[in-house]
Design brief:
Blueprint lengths: L2 E8 L12 E8 L6 E10 L4 H4 L20 E8 L9 E4 L6 E5 L4 E2 L16 H13 L7 E4 L5 H12 L3 E6 L2 H9 L4 E4 L6 H8 L4 E6 L3 H10 E9 L20 H4 L3 E4 L9 H13 L7 E5 L4 H8 L7 E5 L2
The chain binds NADPH dihydro-nicotinamide-adenine-dinucleotide phosphate (NDP).
Length: 334
Amino acid sequence: MSLVSREIRLKSRPVGLPVAANFELASVDVPAPRAGEVQVKNLWMTVDPYMRGRMNDVESYVPPFQLGEAMQGGAVGEVVASNDASLKPGDLVMSMLGWREAFTAPAASLQKLDTHGLPPQAFLGAAGMPGLTAYVGLIKIAALKEGDVVFVSGAAGAVGQIVCQIAKIKGHTVIGSAGGAEKAAFLREIGVDHVIDYKATSNLTAVLGAVAPGGIDVYFDNVGGDHLEAALTSARPFARFALCGMISQYNATDAGAGVHGLMLAVGKQLRLEGFIVSSHFDMMPAFVKELAGWVAAGKLTWKETVEHGVENAPAAFLKLFRGENLGKMLVKLG
Ligand code: NDP
């Protein structure tokens, strides 16, 4: 079966904040599957902040996107034609072939999705890479201990919303920071003890100090910049910082702003540890099992913001940098 698929290509490399003109929409024929291959129609694709780094022509922990080629990223699709015994039409598969409507690929390069009763798109968010990031950062990197006061930035986003709830499930006092009244209200709904709307304050360090007069033990950093500086000031001795991401720096045109107060890490004997979730994929089965239990028990929930159509994927991506997503930003295809 021959199919036409629309896809998003990187047209030019962004300088600073990406703009719509950095992307282009193209159409390609998707060939019928040969032996060992399947043809897949994508149902959902994800846009994630890390993709900004792949738009630069620099080697990092993931290779740069190539100009004039379809971009890549997580997607959930449905097999529509199969020439391999391991997958049949109707099966759901996970791939890194997002940013396109359909593709043909070797069956062995795809992961068959067992949804455990969750909606398929959850595996691009709460039950997928962002959820695992929250779990790894808290449990393994920050090594949560009883009584810890946990500060989370980007708290109402894909990763942050799961961080806040896992920390609450484990009995911690949680301080969450996000931009705007709607996000602040959501954080209160999911039980965050102290909510900071950072866009409504000009002195985040003072506000964090006021809500955590005894200091913080764990900082889960999604934002960097002023949030990291506030956390350094409020950190108790021996506090642990899980450095997950620093989105406030991703569009910097120089090396990014310096961090004021980093010397506090010496005197307070802090541990600042960066991590990349793909180094911890072995924890995925344990995480999905625990998550399914929390969901079934009504202890964990999440928000999604959904854009429709592959042609709107660049706009969905750009919204991440304007904070126009509550929870996981997704694009529904098909
Ligand atoms: P989010 O769903 O949190 O979306 C991004 C959010 O970042 C926006 O909604 C906005 O929220 C906030 N933001 C954007 N620009 C700024 C800015 N200049 N200053 C402060 N906040 C800003 O994304 P994810 O949950 O997918 O990712 C969160 C972080 O985790 C990112 O830094 C990402 O790179 C990182 N990450 C790291 C992984 C790893 O393996 N280390 C894996 C996955 C994600 P608001 O409205 O509150 O400002």
